[in-house]
Amino acid sequence: MPEILQVTRYNRVTVYGLVKRYREQGLAGLRDARHANQGAPRLLTAERQQTLAARLHADFEQGVVWCGNKSFHRRENSDQHEGPGGRSLKFPGLMGLYAK
Predict the structure, then answer these.
(1) Is 23 exposed, middle or buried (0-12, 13-18, 19+ CB in 10 A)?
(2) Among 10, 33, 58, 99, which one has the highest count of C-beta atoms within 10 angstroms of its own C-beta?
(3) CB of 78 within 8 A of CB of 63?
């Protein structure tokens, strides 16, 4: 096992998982399965995506740009990222669009 860890540079948990899959499925268990992974389900329904897009478009027309990753922030005076008027404001109402 130490040789496998050193050669592959995989961690012990990953190697044990690969060995287990090989014992159960043979070489087929070692194939790249990323193509079969469809990823996480969408967070927004189609209707909520349209609502969000309409809201973002309307705010953009008024010079307001939304930014953020896990939470949404409104940025007034979008041409300024800092300074007067460039202060980020949290807007929790937008988070309500996410499906539960």
Answers:
(1) exposed
(2) 10
(3) yes
